């Protein structure tokens, strides 16, 4: 029987797993105002950023698309944009409008009262939107409405043997139910790309995927760098991962076994359902930011030695099969799959239960990174600031 | 006695799921079942060599190449960055990627 969950229906038919008012900084200079409003109003979520002012070209375009993508995420009921000036604010607003969400703006330079006035105006607008959002009720939806990002971080050799294969089973179940999985972290396909490319639905998708991987490797090598020590990271190496190839083979397990139907770049969202690859830098915060901008309502995050960080917009659940990590930081792990290594349990039934847990999180069960507020946003940079 | 998992019959390394002590036996499970003697302490999650490897030999895990032996490695030895080199992303070594 296909999975179902209790979600919030949005104007455009998307379904949220949370129901926040997003308070969105248009530039880094608006972050203090954004945070002050969120501190004052329950039910809001700060979507902050760094830079933006002085960015240009493709780099700026990706940043605008990413900020707007987070605001369009189905978990966001409505938004308050906090901008210094109106032009950049409008660049973001016009990218959010197609979602049909209510958009309010606070333009610091266009009003009296400076930051005090901006916080007061934003607080008033956010409070009204928060009450309006609370009128919405969860109701049942098929799992096909879900888009889940699959991530790994603080990886060690247990990741490729336990949590990532369990997440892979969950991914297969969601894709079988008509939903969408997004796997990313381009450099973490170095040494495994030949296996993943075989799963492409057609030659065009295959080539697009391979171009992203070889393009990144060529870029890294063009500056004469040895990536060892950067990826795998020092904690990966302490955890027993020796090479990027070994890490990649374990990381790829998160994608399960379904066909790769689409390839996305940073700031893009999928047009269809099924398994997608998102080309984005591997570090968790900037990677998950791209997943949230791609419309993922949740992220399932495999960890070995432990990396507690989650995404702001997409509730992030930590899955670990490392018994030492479960003992050391149990409050930072949402789902324990240690039976795989400790008891020799098979992956499939554990992955099936993990899928049930994913549907519970989609229905409102909170994750450790939400409850402990281990959440951060960072948009990758693809050019210099001028 | 420690335990180590062999993921593919072609693999020449196994992953420890306990800490291994020098001179103590390690039981392989998964796609191989032999017991071998560990020649140095090996931390939880690290790899042990299960078949003698010549310098330059491909190191196999998941049935796939994860790097090359940078020197000869004997069965029972700890396999890690001190005796295995990655082949990918090595801008320090070549004029460009493949």
Main beta sheet of chain A:
7 strands, parallel
Helix content of chain A: 40-55%
| Portion of residues within helices of chain B | under 10%
CATH C-level class of chain B is Mainly Beta
Radius of gyration of chain A: 20 Å
Secondary structure category of chain B: mainly beta
Order of helices and strands of chain A: EEEHEHEHEHEEHEHHHHEEHEEEHEHHHE
**Pattern of helices and strands of chain B:** EEEEEEEEE
- Secondary structure: number of strands of chain A: 16
Provide the number of structural domains of chain B. 1
What does the oligomeric state look like here? heterodimer
The main β sheet of chain B shows up as:
6 strands, mixed
The stretches of 5 or more residues of chain B where confidence is low (pLDDT under 50) are none
How many beta-strand elements of chain B?
9
Low-pLDDT residue intervals, each spanning 5 or more residues of chain A: none
Number of helices of chain B: 0
The fraction of residues in strands of chain B falls at 35-45%
CATH topology description of chain B: Archaeosine Trna-guanine Transglycosylase, Chain: A, domain 4
Mean pLDDT of chain B: 93
Distance separating the two termini of chain B: 43 Å
Characterize the overall form of chain A: globular
Description:
The complex is a heterodimer of chains A (386) and B (98). In chain A, 60% of the residues are buried. Chain A has 14 helices and 16 strands. Chain A is globular. Chain A has helices spanning 31-40, 57-72, 86-96, 114-133, 157-176, 193-197, 203-222, 234-238, 244-251, 284-293, 323-328, 339-342, 347-362, 368-371; strands at 4-9, 15-16, 20-25, 44-47, 76-83, 102-107, 139-142, 147-153, 180-183, 260-265, 274-279, 298-303, 310-311, 316-320, 335-336, 375-376. By secondary structure, chain B is mainly beta. Chain B has one domain: Archaeosine Trna-guanine Transglycosylase, Chain: A, domain 4, CATH 2.30.130. Chain B is 0% helix and 36% strand. Chain B has strands at 2-6, 13-16, 25-30, 35-37, 47-49, 58-61, 64-69, 78-79, 84-85. A six-stranded mixed sheet of chain B has the order 4-3-1-2-5-8, with no helix packed on it. A three-stranded antiparallel sheet of chain B has the order 6-7-9, with no helix packed on it. In chain B, strand 1 (2-6) and strand 2 form a beta hairpin. Chain B is globular, with a radius of gyration of 14 Å. Classes of the chains: A alpha/beta (386), B mainly beta (98).
């Amino acid at each position: 029987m296909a999975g179902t969950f209790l979600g919030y229906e949005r104007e455009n038919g998307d379904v949220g797993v949370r129901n926040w008012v997003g308070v969105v900084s248009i530039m880094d200079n608006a972050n203090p105002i954004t945070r002050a409003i969120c501190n004052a109003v329950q039910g809001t979520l700060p979507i902050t950023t760094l830079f933006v002012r002085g960015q240009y070209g493709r780099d700026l375009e990706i940043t605008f698309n990413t900020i707007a993508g987070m605001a369009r995420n189905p978990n966001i009921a409505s938004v308050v944009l906090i901008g210094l000036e109106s032009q950049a604010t409008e660049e973001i607003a016009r990218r959010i409008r197609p979602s049909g969400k209510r958009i309010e703006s606070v333009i610091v330079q266009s009003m009296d009262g400076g930051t005090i006035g901006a916080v007061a105006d934003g607080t008033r607008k956010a409070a009204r939107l928060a009450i309006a959002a609370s009128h919405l009720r969860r109701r049942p939806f098929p799992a096909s409405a879900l888009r889940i990002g699959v991530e790994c971080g603080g990886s060690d050799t247990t990741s490729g043997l336990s949590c990532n294969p369990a997440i892979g089973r969950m991914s297969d179940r969601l894709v079988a139910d008509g939903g969408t999985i997004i796997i990313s972290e381009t450099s973490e396909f170095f040494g495994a790309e030949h296996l993943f490319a075989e799963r492409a639905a057609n030659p065009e998708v295959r080539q697009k995927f391979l171009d992203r991987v070889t393009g990144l490797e060529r870029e890294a090598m063009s500056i004469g760098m040895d990536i060892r020590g950067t990826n795998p990271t020092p904690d990966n190496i302490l955890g027993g991962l020796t090479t990027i190839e070994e890490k990649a083979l374990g990381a790829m397990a998160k994608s399960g076994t379904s066909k790769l139907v689409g390839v996305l770049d940073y700031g893009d969202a999928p047009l269809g359902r099924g398994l997608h690859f998102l080309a984005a830098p591997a570090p968790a915060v900037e990677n998950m930011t791209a997943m949230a901008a791609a419309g993922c309502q949740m992220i399932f995050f495999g960890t070995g030695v432990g990396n507690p960080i989650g995404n702001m917009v997409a509730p992030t659940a930590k899955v670990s099969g490392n018994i030492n990590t479960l003992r050391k930081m149990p409050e930072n792990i949402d789902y324990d799959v240690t039976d795989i290594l400790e008891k020799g349990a098979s992956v499939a039934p554990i992955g099936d239960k993990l899928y049930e847990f994913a549907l519970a999180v989609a229905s409102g069960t909170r994750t450790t990174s939400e409850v402990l507020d281990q959440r951060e946003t960072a948009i990758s940079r693809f050019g210099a600031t001028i | 006695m420690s335990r180590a998992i062999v993921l593919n019959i072609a693999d020449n390394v196994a992953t420890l799921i306990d800490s291994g002590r020098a001179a103590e036996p390690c039981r392989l499970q998964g796609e191989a079942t032999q017991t071998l003697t560990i020649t140095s302490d090996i931390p939880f999650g690290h790899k042990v060599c299960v078949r003698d490897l010549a310098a330059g030999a491909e190191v196999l895990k998941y049935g796939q190449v994860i790097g090359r032996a940078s020197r000869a490695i004997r069965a029972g030895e700890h396999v890690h960055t001190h005796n295995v080199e990655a082949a990918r992303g090595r801008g320090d070594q070549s004029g460009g990627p493949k």
